[in-house]
Specification:
The chain is mostly helical and about 150 residues long. The protein is built from four helices and no strands.
Length: about 150
Amino acid sequence: MKAPSSLKATRFLLGLAGVAAAGYGLAGLPTQLGPAQLIGLLVWMACAVLLHDGIVVPLSTLAGSGLRRFSFGLRPASAAVLRGALMVGAVTSLVVGILLKAQMVVHSVSAVEGDYAARLIWFWAALASATAVLIYLLERAGKVSGSRKQNTRP
């Protein structure tokens, strides 16, 4: 199935805007950073690419194939909700993990405030509850519409 020409044009324009924004940002770097900072930034960016391509992509591919087996029998919308919720939870847990580590290192209470561990547990409970309710509603709506389609056929 071919994409409509308006979609292709939109993609092209968005890509062009992204390249222009990146070029503008890169052109300003030498005027704002010294040589040591530029080298540090390039090393950081190279490590980010290696981390993404070497760890994040393989792990998310494995998780996605595992989720396909776990969500077998769910409607596509329900499976998408499940995958999205797990991705949001994983990214949030990574960020909170960094904050928890910073809390252990920093001895000033005002620098990193809050009980992040307890809040993460509450976040996961709320995320799991909301996801379960949404999947239940989507599955139920799908079964109702599926039975209506069967009843209307001659």
